[in-house]
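>> received
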Amino acid sequence: MPDPDEDQVSASAFAAGFLGQYAGDREMFLELLAGMLQAVVPEHLTVKRQGGWLRRSRPVSSLKVDLGDVQFTLRAARG
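>> returned
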């Protein structure tokens, strides 16, 4: 049986490395995070994107994970 404390340490280390690698590129970070969450909890994820149908790229403006009693929201700062 996996040790929950070990899993938390692994998750924290992954998150720190992920954030450190993409902290300078907000758009890329949000796209990668959205893709990872879509693979793991697609039924609980809402992704909002900026721009309209005339724009070529539609960057992520917010991510929301709704797990019932617990919700997590990440919004991109403007600018």
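>> The helical segments are 4-22, 26-40.
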